Amino acid sequence: MKIAIYPGSFDPVTNGHLDIIQRASKMFDKLIVVVLINPLKSYSFSIPERVRLLHEVTGSVKNIEIDSFDGLLAEYFNERPEIDVIVKGLRATSDFEYEFQMAHTNKDLNPRAETVFIPASSNTTFISSSMVKQVAMFGGDLTKYVPAEIHEQIRDKLTAEFAAKRLAAQNRNN
Ligand code: PNS
Questions:
Q1: What integer pLDDT is reported at residue 93 of this predicted model?
Q2: Which residue minimizes the CA distance to atom 15 of ligand 1?
Q3: What residue ranges of the chain have pLDDT lower than 50?
Q4: Beta-carbon contacts of residue 119 (< 8 Å; ≥ 6 apart)
């Protein structure tokens, strides 16, 4: 039994993530998708919200588990000795340097933690959560970027966040 872990922020999950999830789930007996925190980033969705959105879009993937963890990936890997490998998606060479650094840091922290990279499918190479969030904030069309069943939730959350930001900026300027 080969078990892989697919870590990420998933703020929110996109069609790019889903592409990697669907393909990786066919390569391994089980895929554990884990929502983690990059403490240097600010997030729009809470961890329970990100987990819920992942559940909503992965209903057809049978060999998947969705989890979250407030700590280092190397630590999570250590706590779950059944996991064999970390899977990451690579969209472009611009991803490479950062992902390469993370792969080495994870292996340094836990020598058992090997990373394999899966190239993004050509139709998803340009999709990122931050791009999706910008489009959603302005009420743009999300059809090609995130699964239809979560469009409304994403748009509602992001337009509210953007309205609050605009109001705060207005209040600062007054
Ligand atoms: O989707 P992202 O934002 O590229 O995911 C990055 C994430 C959350 C997987 C990464 O920041 C992470 O692993 N965070 C947990 C803390 C950790 O282990 N960092 C890696 C060592 S630098």
A1: 83
A2: 72
A3: none
A4: 89, 90
pTM of the model: 0.96
Question: What Å distances lie between residue 59 and 52, 99, 149, CA to CA?
Answer: 11, 28, 11
Find the helix or strand (DSSP H, E) in which 35 lies. Answer: strand 30-35
Nearest to 145 by CA among 124, 115, 170: 124
For residue 38, the CA-to-ligand 1 centroid distance in Å is 5
- Output phi, psi for 96, to 5 deg: -60, -50
Model confidence pLDDT, tens digit, residues 108-119: 999 999 999 999
Active-site residue flag, 60: no
Residue in the block written with tokens 């993004």: 120
